[in-house]
Each structure stands twice: as structure tokens, then as C-alpha cells.
Fold these 2 entries.
Entry 1:
Amino acid sequence: MQHVAMVGYGAIGSHLMRMFAADARVRLDQVIVGATGLKKAQAALGDGVAIVTRLEDLPRRPDVLIECASHRALTEHVVPALASGIDSIILSIGALANDGMAELLAEAANAGSSRLKLVSGAIGAIDALAAAQLGGLDEVVYVGSKPPSSWRGSPGESVVCLDSLAEATTLFKGSARDAARLYPKNANVAAALALAGLGLDATQVRLVADPSLSHNVHSYTAQGRFGRMSFTIEGMALPDNPKTSALTACSLARALINRVEPMGF
Ligand SMILES: NC(=O)C1=CN([C@@H]2O[C@H](COP(=O)(O)OP(=O)(O)OC[C@H]3O[C@@H](n4cnc5c(N)ncnc54)[C@H](O)[C@@H]3O)[C@@H](O)[C@H]2O)C=CC1
Ligand SMILES: O=C([O-])CC(=O)C(=O)O
């Protein structure tokens, strides 16, 4: 059994709470929320969960910290956790597209002798892509397609009218770095693929709003000396957030379970 502190209590956080409610391997007993989320978290979670707004206010040292909050949460909570020796697992991978962020995380992990794990989130076959990177990788092209409602609150709103979209429309075409910076809640997958493969500047990304979809479709192709691969997933969204695929929460859950099981994927 491990004691876990979770940063963020939104669609993914509440899903994880339900997943691990009766699981002896993982005790999600501390949550870090933003000041505005305090009341909602207190109302939803019982006395068994400590809810704070700052890492230093956690009543006990967690075995591991997980992040399912936002790009900002990495600087606010993950960097200090790593620096104080707490292993961390993150989902907001797009934050690594910001200048100096990867270096900041690595320095903190080195200073605290801790480890930072990036999980695959809503995408798959990252292990194959990372292996291909060692075997000669020339091109990675990723397309992320979601229903129009999943792009609300993003710069896509100024590209098209999401309410009256009649056909699939490209909202963004460019590098994974620009995608991750411009679409922090929709392009973490693009950043994850880039970091596993060809890097943030060489990985090609297209983001699409498609009114014919009822789920999120992530698709990529990769080729090089290693050979050729393609991967597509049609991910059901979490009920509380149409932007987020349910598999994202499962990927974080798998990473936690793997820490305590004697073997596994
Ligand atoms: N790697 C991947 O495949 C994916 C990564 N994500 C990442 O996970 C994040 C969370 O996703 P959802 O749960 O669907 O979002 P959500 O919006 O439903 O919940 C996020 C919660 O975190 C809180 N929060 C934000 N910044 C915070 C901070 N600095 N400190 C404490 N709490 C903070 C928000 O107030 C909110 O309650 C996304 O913003 C995105 O960065 C999401 C989907 C896929
Ligand atoms: O959950 C998803 O479908 C992917 C996502 O939002 C992201 O890449 O940030």
C-alpha cells in the first residue's frame, strides 16, 4: 500500500478517487487544490482525505505525488515536491514545452534525488515510439480530433464558430511545441509523443474539431530506419470534462499500481 498526494480534483481527480475507493494498493489520502476548489473538494471528500492548497501544508509526507491539474501546477507543486525528495507522476506534459520547464524539473529531481515519471495519458504505444527513437526515427505526424465542444475555451474558438461547424476543420497545424503552448488542455498528448520521439519542434501536429465525432480520436504515424508504425485510439471522454479522455485517468492509475505490484506493464 502507498500513500498518494494528488494535485487537482477535477474530472481526472474525482475519477481516480472512485477507482481507488476500495483498492488496498493505493490510498489517495491527501489532495492539493486551488483556493477556488477548496469548498467543492471538502464537500465531496470525507474526513479521511486531507485537503490543502500548498504542498508544505500536507499533514504527512506522501510516498508519491501525482498531478492531474494544469501546466501551472508543475511549477507550483511538482517542482517543490521533487526538490524535497518526493517521487512524482505527471499528466500535464505540455508544460514541458515552456522555456526552461524541463530543466527546472530535472534540477529539482536531481536536488531531491527523486524521480519524475511522465505517463502516456490519452495516447498509447509511447513505448514503441521511444524505442523507435533509438532505432532511427525520421518523421512523426500526430492528429488530434475532438468534437467541437471539446475545444471550448481554446484559441480554436477564434478560428471557427464551434456551434455551427458543419464539417471536420483544422484548428491548428504546426509543431508540438506551439500546440502544447497554445492548447494546454488539449495537446498534452502531442507533447508526450514529441518528448518520446523526435522532440517538440520536429513533431508535426494537427488539431481538428469534428462535429461527426462523439469521442476523442488520437492518431499518429511514425517512420524511420526502425520501420513504420501507426496508432489510433477512439477514447471516450470523462463525463465531467469532454476535453479529457477517460484513458488518461487509467494511465495514471496504472502507473500507481505498477509501483507496488511485483511485476506488470
Ligand atoms: N497527458 C494527457 O494525455 C492528458 C493530460 N491532461 C492534463 O490533466 C489536467 C487535468 O485534467 P482534468 O481533470 O480533465 O481537468 P479539470 O479541469 O476537470 O480539473 C483540473 C482541476 O485541477 C485544478 N487545478 C488547476 N491548477 C491547479 C493548481 N495549480 N493547483 C491545484 N489545483 C489546480 C482545477 O481547479 C480543477 O479543479 C489537464 O489540465 C491537462 O493538463 C488532460 C488530459 C489528457
Ligand atoms: O484527453 C485527451 O483526449 C487528450 C488531451 O486532452 C490532451 O492531449 O491534453
Note: The chain has a mean pLDDT of 97.
Entry 2:
Amino acid sequence: MDPPFNEIYKTLLYKQITNTVNNVSDIPFSFSVTAVVEEVELPVIDVSRLIDGNKKEREKCKEDIARASREWGFFQVINHGISMDVLERMRQEQIRVFKEPFEKKSKSEKFSAGSYRWGTPSATCLRQLSWSEAFHVPMTDISDNKDFTTLSSTMEKFASESEALAYMLAEVLAEKSGRKSNFFRENCVRNTCYLRMNRYPPCPKPSEVYGLMPHTDSDFLTILYQDQVGGLQLIKDNKWIAVKPNPRALIINIGDLFQAWSNDMYKSVEHRVMTNPTVERFSTAYFLCPSYDAVIECSSDSPAYRNFSFREFRQQVQEDVKKLGFKVGLPRFLNHHY
Ligand SMILES: C=C1C[C@]23C[C@@]1(O)CC[C@H]2[C@@]12CC[C@H](O)[C@@](C)(C(=O)O1)[C@H]2[C@@H]3C(=O)O
Ligand SMILES: O=C(O)CCC(=O)C(=O)O
Ligand SMILES: [Fe+2]
């Protein structure tokens, strides 16, 4: 059974109509989202060259990763080392867990309280509603899980394979920005990372609501495993572009922490997910995060951001989402912010 999306939709639509009648400014939502967007293939990088390639091929691969992270903030990796078997098992377990009744998911004892999310609790207007449900799970919940299930063991396996890829990419990006690459193995240990399982149910009003509202990720980098339905879009050169699914590839995107740590060299790019009227969509994301006490320090003579801990960043994001209905993110931590 789906979460009560229709009810929240009706409530927010009613609010929008009454506001329009009463001339209260609530930006109409008919809508930037339907604007034509180009479908493109993101840069595709064969990362097996980092391990099997000769010196020249390795260097070329590193440069490809760094360039895509500077120019797109997004790229795809193939021959990434995460086995098809683990990916398929992850997807099957995910489909199974979302099939459970809404009441069971929302009171789920599988993971700690608040891991299951649907819609956008803070939404005060239609444009803030996300037509999706997710389990946003801290890895500690999985490693400490005493009742060993196929779900938790599959998540553990998916996470350990993703972790290896995430370290490898983060180390390349550190090296190419002149930073020490051991930072990640020291500060982003297994238990500080997050795994997120997303489900986007079919939506009867696809032109009026997002599957996932525009956001940047609050981590160092994200590894995304999506199905072939499509719907992910990102901003490039001030335009929304749609990502064409590639069955062989995983998507990598730079998060806020890497943008700050690299002093804006690598870009944490806004992205969103569009809904589909008939087909449900699934994706799984692995977020490379440091411990809450880790300090994100820009290395530069003129750092764009002040030093901040991951704890501070998360708390600020949560406070903004609660108070304003959206995440402000990095601009809050700019030096000379006024
Ligand atoms: C309402 C919100 C929660 C969120 C930030 C946002 O403003 C929009 C999307 C949400 C999201 C989705 C991806 C990540 O899980 C997340 C941590 C992020 O960076 O953007 C969450 C944010 C959150 O849950 O705090
Ligand atoms: O489902 C997708 O394609 C993107 C999901 C996403 O952006 C996220 O979970 O942060
Ligand atoms: Fe995201």
C-alpha cells in the first residue's frame, strides 16, 4: 500500500487554490518542471584503468574523473568493480521491503527511528512535495543489526563494495586537487556513511509534483544505482538536463563536503527526480560521509568557506529544512557571508 500521497497532494493543492483566490503570493507551480529538457549521456569513465591500466592510462583516467567533477559534478563509471550479483540482490531486497504495508514501514523496527521517510514532512506548498518514499539508513544501523536478515546482509555487501569504489574515487580527486588522500580512510569509516533506498511510485499528476525535489547531497560523494526508468535531472550551464540511464553504469556525484574541501574546485550540483505517470522507479544511493566530529577544511590561501564540522553542517541543514522548508547548504558556511 502506498503512503497517503493523494491526501497530502489534495491538501497542498487546496491551499494553493485558496491562496490564489485570496491573492496570497504562493508561487504558482505550473511550471518550470514541464520545461523541455535535453536528454544527454553523462561522461562515461572506465575506472578499471585505475587498477589495470599502464601509467599513461591511469593518469588519463584520473584526469577524466577530475575534469567531470569540475565541469559536471556528475559522471558515470563503468567496470566499477561492484558485482552485478550484489546490485541485483540489492534491488530485489529493496523492492521487497517497499512492498510492505505503509503502517509497517513507518513503524519499521528494522532501522532506527526516522529512517523511513515519505513525501516531504516540511512541505508547505506543492513545489516542496516529493512523491517518493525512502529508507535513509546510517550504516551503524546495519553493522549493529543483531537480527541478521537477507536485507541487512545485502545492504552490508552493497555498502562494502561501494565503499571501495568511493575511496578510490575520493583519493583520485584529493590527489588532483593537491590534497592528502588519506583523509577519507581516516575520517569516513564504514559506520559514518549512509545508504538510501528510494522508491518513486507512479504519480497521477507528474507535471505538478517532483519525485524528489531539487537538492544537493550533503556528503563527499554519492554512488547511485538507478534502474532503467529514468527521471533524474541535473543542472548544467544553468539548464536542467535529463540523465539517460545506462544499464552498465553507476552514477557518481560530488556532494557539498567535497565542494567545500576542494575550495569550489569540484561542484556539488543541484539535481532532482521527475515523476512518471505509469511506472514505479527505484534507486539506491551510497553516501560517503565523515564522522560527525570531522572538520571540513578548505585548503587555500583564500578559503571560500570557514572550517566546519560535519555535525554543524547536518544540524544547520536540518534546522533550515524545518524552519524554511528547504536546505540552504553551503552558502551558510561561506567566509565573509553577509
Ligand atoms: C527537505 C529536504 C530534505 C533533504 C534536503 C531537502 O531540502 C531536499 C531533499 C532532501 C535530501 C535528499 C537527499 C539526501 O538524502 C539529503 C540528506 C539531501 O542532501 O537532500 C536529503 C535532505 C535531508 O533529508 O535532510
Ligand atoms: O533517485 C535518484 O535518481 C536520485 C536520488 C538522490 O538524488 C538522492 O537520494 O540523493
Ligand atoms: Fe541526491
Note: The domain at 5-302 is CATH 2.60.120.330 (Jelly Rolls).
